[in-house]
Predict the structure.
Amino acid sequence: MTDTLLTDALAALLTDHATPATVRTIEADAEAAAAAAAPSVSRPALPCPALWRVLADAGFADALVAEDQGGAGLTLAQVAPLWALCGAHALPLPLAETMLARALLAQAGQRAPDGPLALGRVRALPGGGLRAQAVPGARCALAVLASDGASCRLLRVADAQAEAAAFVLDATLTWPDAAWQAAPRLEQATLPDLRQWQALVLAQQLAGALGAVFERTLAHANARQQFGRAIGRFQAIQHQLSVMAEEVVAARMAAQIGCWADGTRLQPDPLRVATAKARCSEAALQVAALAHAIHGAIGFTREFDLQLHTRRLHAWRQAAGSETYWHRVLGLALVDGSQAPLLHTLQRISDHPQTA
């Protein structure tokens, strides 16, 4: 199966089933749950079973699982365009995170539950229990593959107390110690770095959402008339559009670099991931601001689809570390003495593994 067939298939599904109306419905359900009087310790069935079932039945949830375990056996570079499509369509489900979680569980010989999965990092609370702060997609997930730095376990969302996070589909989850002890544990020689994997997913989704915002803004600039001509013909607007285009292309290239791996199917390169997330997060602020400037006040309204993407740009920029965090990771790697000189390191990051 070629990359084009994969992306075409997912694009068709998302166009038909993840419409702006569907996204709004799922977000409204999540908003209602977050506004409940008390933190939820149990949850009803998934608010979006139809959309999830379409994606799962098509096999995308097991795209990274090895073929001899029933998956498609794809690499990170092969699924990267699929994750970008999720961002471009503002998919309100953690499909990309589910791909990674199911692949890790399969590697560990464990059966994954049938439903969306999120990724999170937990820390122990002084009075007992463990908390995962602002887990992306938690409102639509059945379980969270969580790490405390020493172990990695699959925790049910239904066992947690949920608190609202800044983005409506995210939630801060707190589990009792008993839930952590009873949760299935990944037995692997090397503990996965879930922050790094989250950053990789978010970089691809940011790249997709940035492209969608630019295309929507360009169409608006060519259609919106002012003083008898399209606003896109004014030099000031053309300058803003050109800056947006530069940011979108740079972010897309950085996101692609983040998925390049040297000889391994699933393990990303830490410095390439840092580069991808830092550049995509950096672009998110500027592109969102320019898009709203060109759209004027209409872009902020609930009825206008632009906000479905720009709200995600702001949320994904911060999740799993903003550009400040990942710039620091890159800087520390360069000065701690374990890396090659700066130019050699930059060359290693930007050279494709098959051509280096």
